[in-house]
Design a protein that fits this description.
It is built from five helices and 14 strands. By secondary structure, the protein is of the alpha+beta class.
């Protein structure tokens, strides 16, 4: 089946999984939905290496030169993956000032963890520095707690609501004005206090006033995948899924019934071909040459073997001139 494409719209996590299933078409259900979900998460990791998420953190100085990465950069920093791209110090100058690589070490390893170490500065308590670093992308379903008092609606709601946030909620029962059950609406949260909020909206010509408190368990989606790359990620996950199906059919091609054996080999080849096309679609979208993990560097520094293989000195570049 051809790689999936659609007009850019935000995908929910469930939609990602559904789209991958649509692309692959594992009608025989050779693999489980859990395995499919694992391919989606693996695709997110691969995509993160090609186009890492960029996170910005602002840190207030304390007069010292060591700043804990765990404390100041938080869970977004992934040891062994994340790198600091730049540090703006002092922050918010009209013409941004960035530290040279010789001015800091990050990560600097200590027994207590990883740190950003300033080599020539010690930001004062009146100063701020801005750190930009790479992180893994996120695509998952997260649990939030919320309870709707009336009418009968429950929802997937954004974490830590503030006034003006758009809330996505879905009806669980029929509402006045001909609004049917299982209908999704997007409205603005208002009247927030520490533990409650109010939603007022006109739905289907009917004014709905809904209040909520922090109780009950519902779910929301957390995704940092840009809309422009959603389909590419689906194709990458599908290529992993199709490759696994090709392998699964290949390992069942030793049937004692000849026709079954031929059919298994055919399906293995079919899914292997699909996997290549789906991966190619992903790589083409990201501008990566097939077979390469990332864009080739503009220049390379390399040690050359300057002696003849049998150990004698070169005629034109003898050792004494090196």
């Amino acid at each position: 089946m051809a790689p999936y494409q659609r007009e850019n719209m935000p995908y929910t996590y469930d939609e990602y999984k559904d789209k991958v299933s649509e692309i692959v078409q594992d009608k025989a259900e050779k693999l489980t939905t859990i395995e499919r979900d694992n391919f989606v998460q693996e695709a997110v990791k691969i995509y993160s290496r090609h186009r890492p998420r960029e996170v910005v953190k602002e840190i207030t100085g304390d007069g010292g030169y060591d700043y804990s990465i765990a404390t100041h950069l938080g869970a977004a920093w992934v040891k062994g993956f994340s790198i600091i791209e730049r540090i703006e110090y002092p922050a918010d100058e009209r013409d941004p000032v960035y530290l040279d690589e010789e001015d800091f070490i990050a990560p600097f390893e200590k027994s207590s963890g990883q740190y950003i170490r300033f080599l020539n500065d010690a930001p004062a308590t009146t100063e701020t520095f801005r750190v930009t670093f790479t992180a893994l992308h996120t695509l998952r379903e997260a649990v939030v707690t919320i309870s709707i008092a009336s009418p009968a609606v429950v929802s997937w709601v954004k974490h830590n609501l503030v006034a003006g946030d758009t809330v996505r909620f879905k009806t669980t029962g029929a509402l006045p004005g001909g609004i049917s059950a299982d209908t999704t609406y997007y409205v603005i949260a208002t009247g927030l206090t520490a533990n409650s909020f109010r939603i007022s909206a006109t739905l289907g010509g009917t004014v709905i006033n809904t209040s909520g408190t922090q109780s009950g368990t519902h779910r929301t989606d957390e995704s940092t995948i840009p809309e422009s790359d959603q389909d590419a990620l689906c194709n990458l996950a599908a290529s992993l899924y199709s490759g696994a199906l090709a392998s699964a059919y290949a390992h069942t091609s030793d049937s004692t019934i000849g026709a079954d054996s031929v059919d298994h080999r055919s399906k293995s080849q079919e899914f292997a071909a699909r996997a290549r096309e789906q991966k190619k679609s992903y790589l083409n979208h990201l501008g990566i040459k097939d077979g390469a993990s990332e864009t080739a560097p503009a220049s390379v520094v390399k040690d050359l073997d300057v002696d003849y293989p049998w150990g004698e000195d070169r005629l034109t570049h003898p050792r004494k001139q090196r």
